[in-house]
Design brief:
Helix content is 69%, strand content 0%. The chain is mainly alpha-helical. It is globular and about 40 Å long.
């Protein structure tokens, strides 16, 4: 995953494609590896973080039926637009767990982050019947 920091966009896209392919073969392992990497590299520049989050979103969307609740919980955290997309994707299968985790971001007297609200809106749209 360190190769996501390569300045060449072609290399970045190859890393994204590789993560997606590996994620389709072993979704739980790849999602946990990506999560661990992002947590260990909390200062990772936004564009590089987005590559990993885009891969995670793709893995979740293509493997909703095979994910377990433990994996869903591991994928829940707060990182701007790309992370919001991951939460919405996980929420298509585990809406209650995602909502439970997202509600913890609300604190009395403090306005919630823009992307927390956006995530709620996108969850509602994606789970509307």
């Amino acid at each position: 995953m360190d190769a996501t920091t390569d300045r060449d966009e072609a290399v970045q896209e190859q890393i994204l494609a590789a993560l997606c392919a590996l994620g389709n073969a072993e979704p739980g392992h790849v999602l946990r590896a990506c999560d661990g990497y992002l947590r260990q590299h909390d200062k990772l520049a936004y564009p590089h973080r987005v590559i990993i989050l885009r891969a995670m979103e793709s893995v979740v969307r293509h493997n909703l039926d095979t994910l377990d609740k433990g994996t869903a919980k591991d994928v829940v955290w707060e990182w701007q637009q790309a992370a919001s997309s991951v939460l919405v994707a996980v929420g298509q299968r585990f809406i209650n767990k995602v909502m439970e985790e997202a509600l913890t971001k609300f604190q009395p007297g403090i306005l919630p982050h823009y992307f927390v609200l956006q995530t709620f809106a996108n969850l509602a749209v994606s789970n509307g019947e």
